Amino acid sequence: MKNPEAQQDVSVSQGIRMMFYMMKPNETSFETLEEVPDYVQKATPFFISLILLELVVSWIHKGKPSGPLDDALTSMSAGVLSRLPGLFFRSIELTSYIYIWENYRLISLPWDSPWTWYLTFLGVDFGYYWFHRMAHEVNIMWAAHQTHHSSEDYNLSTALRQSVFQLYTSWIFYSPLALFIPPSVYAVHLQFNLLYQFWIHTKVIDNLGPLELILNTPSHHRVHHGRNRYCVDKNFAGTLIIWDRIFGTFEAEKEKVVYGLTHPINSFEPFKVQFHHLLTIWTTFWATPGFFNKFSVIFKGPGWGPGKPRLGLNEEIPEVKGKEVPFSSSASRLLQTYAVVQFALLLTFYEDTYTDKAALSQVTLLLRACFIILTLTSIGFLLDQRPKAAVLETFRCLVFLMLCRLGHLKPFIPSLSFAFENILKRHGIIIVASSIVRIMVIDIVKTWKNMKEDSMPELEF
Question: Which residue, 245, 254, 259, is CA-closest to 201?
């Protein structure tokens, strides 16, 4: 029997509460998997609202924004990229779970029981702790998870910096739950566990008193994101910090935390952010002699080397001084503003694609996904000031016009659709030319800026 209090639509009250894991069992229990809302997708406006709120609070208290614009754009780009596979197929975390449930389950706990709900809460959080810990201690898993740690700042946008292929290993740690927990209950908590971890990525909240003993908090998670020696491989919790206290991986916040990877990647290009460590593993694998050593390169810790402990040596972690300057884009304010506008338009288009995905053909979905990837890559190239950034952006604009002409993309304002199509038919060449001129202007501004910097005398202090 379907739970009468379960709702497909998420109200504002529910939206706020789901961000803090404060939803009640009777409003989030569903008989079938198809009834479970896509809470993560529905959380997008709440992500944006909280990021803006953090920005305002930071500005009031510290007189500056909560983080640099280039870093925030890269984090949100990674979040969009990580969600694209969901346009085409169900997550492997669900498909694998359903397979085990249908073929190997031992018992079936009632889907509408509060006891099942709370047991699943603990089970998912326990599974997340071990997945998260292994993602730091197994090099091939770290290759995916490092994406989330690559930001050298720490704010709510950092929470969105997710890996594209991390979920292809995380499902393993939740599989035992499929022996007795219905998939619909599991799907709810899998999303809530992820959403809870959004708000703890902030520096504007200091200490939460007694809650620090039980819950994962901003203070605990700041430690986890630090590259100080005392921070590395600590505080793996999702929602409850008790797992770290039990298994000896807890560390309280002490000295100033310096964020990011121990060896920063110094790039805003989304593919490098996602996949650079795989290249490092590939290079190290072939450079390391011996079959068992090669095996260890993949399955031992990121810091491992022949003759070292499984997780490497703590003293080899680069020591931080607390005065490190995060990598920042050399792009002009004008170019960064242009990147923000393009990303804002992309985000609207991305949301529209997810909303209408059931009505869109597979070809249209594929072309839209490719255009999203192209746009994110172009933004990364612009922020990195790559030599071919202007060429790529010009190509992206041409692809946009082509997709609009073929009907795979539509203007955001429906009433403009007819006029837009006529303009494309009659004045396509003019639009293409204007796009090229726009990029040439960007390139000229960049060249002028570089020439101005080169002509300036070097100052000595």
Answer: 259
Q: At what angle do helices 362-384 and 389-406 cross, to 10 degrees?
A: 160
Given a contact cutoff of 8 angstroms between Cβ atoms, the answer to whether 231 and 251 are in contact is yes
Question: In the block, which residue shows the tokens 């706020």?
Answer: 16
* Residue-wise pLDDT tens digits, 173-227: 999 999 999 999 999 999 999 999 999 999 999 999 999 999 999 999 999 999 9
pLDDT tens digits along 40-66: 989 989 999 999 999 999 998 888 887
Neighbours of 20 (CB within 10 A): 14
> Is 348 exposed, middle or buried (CB count within 10 Å of its CB: 0-12, 13-18, 19+)?
exposed
Q: Are 160 and 76 in contact (CB under 8 A)?
A: yes
Residue type (1 letter), 179:
L
Helices (H), 300-416: 333-355, 362-384, 389-406
Predicted TM-score (pTM) of the model is: 0.87
Q: Residue 284: which H helix or E strand, with range?
A: helix 270-287
Residue 428 CB-density burial (10 A; 0-12 exposed, 13-18 middle, 19+ buried):
middle
Q: What angle do CA 328, 162, 182 make, to 5 degrees?
A: 165
